[in-house]
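Case study 2.
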Amino acid sequence: MAKKARTVFVCNECGYESDKWMGQCICGAWNTMFEQKLQATDAADKRGRGATGDRSCNAKVTKLKDVVSSSFTRIDTGIGELNRVLGGGLVKGSLTLISGEPGIGKSTLILQTAANIAASNGRVLYVSGEESEEQIKLRADRVCKGDIEELCIFAETNMENIEAACEEFKPSFVIIDSIQTMYTESLEAAPGSVSQVRACGNLLMRLGKVAGIPIFIVAHVTKSGELAGPKIVEHLVDCVLSFTGERSHEMRILRSLKNRFGTTSEIGAFEMAEEGLVEIENLSKSFLEGITGNTDGSVTTAVYEGTRPLLLEIQALTAPTNIGFARRSTIGADSARLNMILAVLERKAGVSLINQDVYVNIVGGLRPEGTSTDLAVALAVYSSHKGLAGDSGTLAIGEIGLTGELRTVQNCDKIIREAARMGFKKMIMPAGNLSRLEAKGEIPTGIKAQGAKNLRDAISLYFSL
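Prediction:
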């Protein structure tokens, strides 16, 4: 049975509430009381948002101008790259979802985070629904360097028991590993089902918001690399992190797909070692350390991720097609974008690749966003097809249009400073970017910047034709 709404009178000036209308408010203002209906809320109803600890209070409409902005309190995770992706650290009361393929290092990352927070902020509760306490202890002995006196392990999958444990121990940080193994007694569905995952997600959100506890939720991924389970969980949480990497490489990339308290363009880089995940401070150097002299099919480019430029190596290989249609294969690059670049090369640069297999690889396992790598991909394909080796000390950036023109890219000033710091002597960029850098005097000493209007000009500049 629906509860009846209660009528109150609220002052438009000071916000004072009264059960009856008054001509003059206690603040002294006249005729400022207006009528408002409040819907009663059952304290036992756990379906509500529960943003405050007082469940008996009635929800009311508030004018946006009357809402007081407050700064979020962040917790240092002790891992600089994780803090960068989160936007400066964990926000109290936030709900963070981290996903990744099995064995990629999710549990290692969150266990190192848990140990750091336990050493600096007090008790941390690690709820494991998959691994035993002994398994977690073995991993902690290997990867945790600090004091783990306040790190508590709870092998449980019942959400009601987890809530009771949080009320009793009052942890400063909670980890749920994983959401697909949790269940609530209010539903008869099996753990991992759509209804259970949705209900457990709602319970965790209410627990974190009411108690002000930051919660990390580990989630499985499907074969296609997407988060398993209902999409509603991604909408509930405040932050979605994706942990990726190639099993054949030691590098791991942490990327934010959603962040209500920061940017979604930051990435964090780690190296998987025997002692756990180690932060990579100079990411550009690690991406370029395999370059050996002037080699055909290899071109250096750059992308801007979050607040830092990253230098990358693009490799391309062309080979005659033996039978059937020509093959196009990419690792790290967008296949549709590659087909467009090959079409522009054929029409605007006179390079026929109809009977050539084309392979493109972005070294390091990074999948950059944006179009600033277009020019480097085109130059690498041209270099491999013609057998021409470019200068390894030259960096090329630029977006290629369908007419063959080079479009400007963002943050070119920061990219050229990073290129100069890494020892590059020459940089090819769109003519629009060059004119802006020259007008502002932002070209560093020791590097020669050259502008190209179209793809043909860029090819001539890169290979000194």
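The CA atoms of residues 431 and 451 lie 4 Å apart.
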